[in-house]
Amino acid sequence: MILRLFATIACATVLVACTVESKVGIDDALDAITQENLKNTTSYLADDARNGRRIGSPGHEDAANYVAGQFKAIGLQPGGEDGWFQHVPVVSAVIDAENSGVILHTAAGDAELEWLKDVVVFPDAIREESQVRAEVVFVGFGIHAPELEYSDFDGIDVEGKIVATFRGGPEAFPPLELTYYSSADIKAAELVSRGAVGQVLLWDRREEESNNWDEHYDGYPKNPLLSWENGSGEVSGYFPQRLGLADLSRASAEKLFEDAPISFEDALDAAEASRPMSTLLGVEVTLYQKVKHERFSSPNVVGVLRGSDPQLTNEYVVFSAHLDHLGTRESEEDTIYNGFFDNAVGVAIMLESARALAKLTVAPRRSIVFLAVTGEETGLLGSDYFVNNSSIPKTSMVVNVNVDMPQLMFPMTTITTFGAERTSFEKPAAAEVALEGFEALPDPYPDADGEIGRSDHYSFAVQGIPFIWMAEGVGSPDPGLDGMALFNAFLEEHYHQVSDDLSRPIDWDSARRFARACARVTRRLAMEDDAPAWNEGDFVGEKFGQN
């Protein structure tokens, strides 16, 4: 009996030890993230065989199937309406240049503007043909921003008229507000709400300094306008009340103002001074077009790690990274936009974060969606479709973690956590990345155009969902290394170029630590008692927090 008792105790001890050892916490789970896994994913996605992963291409389909296979191997649950895939129905619109244009109707007579040299017309997303003739009214930048005490519409009626607006917005606006109010969709919504039936775009001096008309429209239209169209007939970024949209060259803009009470130079001066100015121009314009449409679908890839807390499992942290890139170009040299940093590395980091979190014995309290989106490069198409058409209600998506183009080129000591500073999660995010040896930094470009509109997190932000865009930092343990200079050099020389390929230098240990930091932040978000909330008075939270 004594021997049997000792044997029983010994077996029980072994069982307890095995049970304890089998419980995998976050520190052990993170060991699943390896440089080898990161290299394997980026090598596959950025390989020439993927042909640049353009939306709708076989290369993108291959990449989507690869991610779905990884999700399955990791142990996630399918989160699409078709297994791992949420198919995004895409409408492609290409302008028929021979049957589209702009006619000015002035006191001196009618004048057709010369295609490409003087004007381009943008295709209607749905209509195959449209034409509108109306009086033209100039309304500055076409912006109404009461909280900034600015409006281009004071004392002017645009109902039934074609509006002429400058691109962009007043330089005096704060960066984030400038980004928001410069948005083409925000402007269009304002214009059609006031009854405008068409729009012509003008270039101010800042636009002329940063762009060249001939280069900008060389070969237009190179690429079609892409929109999503759901089963209810909703179309992304579409304003059916606007019957035409055109862009005018400097010479055409001057003609537009020939009979106006102000000169085009007066309008340029007002724009440069961030001063509202509006007036009837004493001219009518006809906008007409014919458009060729095609329809196809492209998949978002969706995997779910189900939450363990019955009270929180129906709340979702959405971890996104865009899978698509730019495809190919015609050239006698390199033809493929491989998109190594943009965003093969980002997808690899998302996959490794999922791999680690799926190893946890007890899953995080909230559910986590891992989302490889399509169409980021063509207007955030896939993320916008997901937020607006997912089986998960928007109100159940409590936060978005986004990774896009992390340039991990050298040993790093800092991470940029865009968006965290706008929410109650700023300090927890900083604490989590510190566990991987990173200091969390705010936007390194606070005086630039604001971080909100640069990637897929925007699709969540405009629905009132807080976001954290996990991005590279510029700090290094090497005091002689200028991280900001390397970052800027990449943007100038390799961003959206065929040279963003597997030959780019990368510090794989920084990539591994970055993925671990992303996993920690995501888990913390899924474990908190309360979901992140917008800070009081935050511009994004006030604009969209009630959506």
Report a brief summary of the structure.
This protein is α/β, with parallel strands linked by helices and 547 residues long. Helix content is 32%, strand content 23%.
Task: Characterise the protein shown here.
The protein is an alpha/beta fold. It has two domains: 24-83 and 306-544, Aminopeptidase (3-Layer(aba) Sandwich), CATH 3.40.630.10; 94-291, Glucose Oxidase, domain 1. Helix content is 32%, strand content 23%. The protein contains 17 helices and 21 strands. It has helices at residues 2-22, 26-29, 35-45, 58-74, 175-182, 184-193, 205-210, 213-216, 250-256, 264-272, 340-357, 381-389, 426-434, 457-461, 483-493, 508-527, 539-544; strands at 77-78, 85-95, 101-106, 109-112, 119-121, 129-138, 144-145, 150-151, 162-166, 198-202, 225-228, 245-248, 279-305, 316-322, 327-328, 336-337, 367-373, 397-403, 414-418, 439-441, 467-472. The strands form three sheets. It has a 17-stranded mixed sheet that branches. Strands 7-8 form a two-stranded antiparallel ribbon. A hairpin with a 2-residue loop joins strand 3 and strand 4. The longest helix is centred in the N-terminal third of the chain and has 21 residues, at 2-22. The model is unreliable at 1-21 (pLDDT under 50).
